[in-house]
Amino acid sequence: MGSRASTLLREEEIEEIKKETGFSHSQITRLYSRFTSLDKGENGTLSREDFQRIPELAINPLGDRIINAFFPEGEDQVNFKGFMRTLAHFRPIEDNEKNKNPPATEPLNSRTNKLLFAFRLYDLDRDDKISRDELLQVLRMMVGVNISDDQLGSIADRTIQEADTNGDTCISFQEFMKVLEKVDVEQKMSIRFLH
Amino acid sequence: MAWLTLPVDLLSKYLGLFTDVWLTLVFGFLIVPAVFGVPFGIHKYYIKILLSIFEWTTLQMELKAKEKNNQLYKHYTSGIIVKVPDSTLKQEIQDLRCSAGCLSLDPRFELADVFVFCRKALENIIDDDVTKRFSAQKLENWNLLTRSNHNFRYINLQLLALWILGVLIRYGVLLPFRVTVAVTGIFLFVVLSTVVGLIPCTKTYLSDKVHLMGYRLCVRSLTGIVTYHNRENKPKNDGICVANHTTPIDGIVLANDHCYSLVGQLHGGLLGLIQRAMVKSSPHMWFERAEVKDRRLVAKRLRDHVADENKHPVLIFPEGTCVNNTSVMMFRKGSFEIGCTVYPAAIKYDPRFADAFWNSSKFGLMGYLLRMMSSWAIVCSVWYLPPMNRKEGEDAMQFANRVKAAIAAQGGLVDLIWDAGLKRTKVKDTFKEEQQQLYSKILLGDHEYQNHPES
């Protein structure tokens, strides 16, 4: 049954999102249905609390960081377009060939953009470098209270040492990509959407 | 003003006639048979007619959608993402590292590890198992109720006419009938229950009859069409009956077939009046609000009740709150600690005729009853499962999970480990801490983790 989706979401908006993200018409309406079911305030936007209401997300150690990725700099609400833009990073790359009108700029789900998404989970202050502190923060989120500060520090140091090629004790995006060049990013950072 | 009296006379005459006919119909066909337990008989045909109408309406909607080159969105046959079978965190991290020849499988940290958490999080944002249990189940076919179709717009003239006819029948004919039956039923029940309570000797026999009559009237007032399966497994006096919880009507549906002792909080108002009347003829356990919090008191009263052979089995809903009848959520272990026989029952409502789920955050009890009485019918199946006892070496939680799995399997429901209380509260931090522990083990290796598990 067309849900609240197809009437409240105008055709022009669907076309815009299609062009920008590469999702198909039916995928967009289905995701809009999901968006509205998460939107308890029924005001057309999602807040951080709306995401936190998903129990499986709330228990994810990196849950907060990932939720953050949906919200533009300094904002507390995300609308449907923003929601779709973030989800678009996780479209499988092979889906792009099915598109009749590929976007002019680099698609949101390219390998580089997927890696950039992961990089930004670490790089909180968006200075294009992962500092030792930022790395420690993420590590602490993932391990909780189970590893001592010293051990965590040495893990962070070793990781930076292995990745850092220009000696600035930070990991830049280029260095990040180099470390992960053999990883099958296309598959591991993709979700199989039904058509 | 003589000319005014004539039409008024006529009006009152016709109104009187109308009321007479109506009351005769209601009493003759609904109340009296219900009081004596005689079935009414036209339910099968009613359902068949409704089902064929619903199929026709869906066909119309599909045709219309095809015109626009879009597909009709069916919530169950189409999902959003491909569901992969669950695997552990360790497996996923290993898969990730294996797929890239350069990453090590040894216990250490890899920058790529975030990918696993990332993907899981996104999958949960798009489609998770829990949040969809707290809102009404979405239907494949439209059943002519606007409440189950958020997208009501003009399809064609026939459909609109059919819908208007449906509204007139439901609110003009069915609702008044049902309200009359319900009111009569409650009134009769309260009076008879109090009367029976005053008679010393044949208390149990008469009170059972009165209770069954009361529930039968309630079920008839909702046009409840209940099919009971495996009646040989009906609960006996030495145990408790547990069932999945969707609506306050669950209790009525079960008590329509067998006498139970109910457990719950004592309310005020009309509900409280009914509760107090019930207690006069049969031992139910109503707790004051303060007492409910005292688990030991509740457990003791339950234990004493179960030990008494003459008292009916206790009816308990271990989920603690209503969920939408597509899944069974975590059972509270309190009732399984008593140590008596458990008689499980599975209740499954057919969502095509009414949405039985009580979404207490959306509407209160009166609003809910109004919706129920203006739906087509409440069609459900009840399965009585064979009795279960706690096994050697099994703790209360494991026993509860075993019973839950049996109920889910019988009712065709999804068996979830999540707490139904998540409807209102946040998930406990211990679950996140578990995930963090698992990852720490992967980072350090199991052996080293034993030696340094502190901050």
TrEMBL record, chain A:
Pfam family, one: EF-hand_7
Coarse class of the protein's main subcellular location: membrane
EF-hand domain mapped to chain residues: 26-61, 110-145, 151-186
GO biological process: protein transport
InterPro entries named in the record: Calcineurin_B_homologous, EF-hand-dom_pair, EF_Hand_1_Ca_BS, EF_hand_dom
Keywords: Calcium, Cell membrane, Cytoplasm, Lipoprotein, Membrane, Metal-binding, Myristate, Nucleus, Phosphoprotein, Protein transport, Repeat, Transport
Keyword Repeat in annotation: yes
GO molecular function terms listed in the Swiss-Prot or TrEMBL record: calcium ion binding
Keyword presence, Cell membrane: yes
Protein's cellular compartments: Cell membrane; Cytoplasm; Nucleus
Domain of life the protein comes from: Eukaryota
A GO CC term assigned to this protein in UniProt: plasma membrane
PROSITE patterns per UniProt: EF_HAND_1, EF_HAND_2
Protein family according to the UniProt entry: Belongs to the calcineurin regulatory subunit family. CHP subfamily.
Protein name: Calcineurin-like EF-hand protein 1
Organism this protein belongs to: Poecilia formosa
Classification lineage: Eukaryota, Metazoa, Chordata, Craniata, Vertebrata
Automatic annotation (TrEMBL), chain B:
Organism phylogeny: Eukaryota, Metazoa, Chordata, Craniata, Vertebrata
UniProt-recorded name of the protein: Glycerol-3-phosphate acyltransferase 4
UniProt keyword terms in alphabetical order: Acyltransferase, Lipid biosynthesis, Lipid metabolism, Membrane, Phospholipid biosynthesis, Phospholipid metabolism, Transferase, Transmembrane, Transmembrane helix
Domain Phospholipid/glycerol acyltransferase, first and last residues per copy: 239-350
GO cellular component, one term: membrane
Family, as annotated: Belongs to the 1-acyl-sn-glycerol-3-phosphate acyltransferase family.
Entry-linked SMART domains: PlsC (SM00563)
Domain of life: Eukaryota
Pathway(s) per entry: Lipid metabolism; Phospholipid metabolism
Record-level GO BP terms: phospholipid biosynthetic process; triglyceride biosynthetic process
Single Gene Ontology MF annotation: glycerol-3-phosphate O-acyltransferase activity
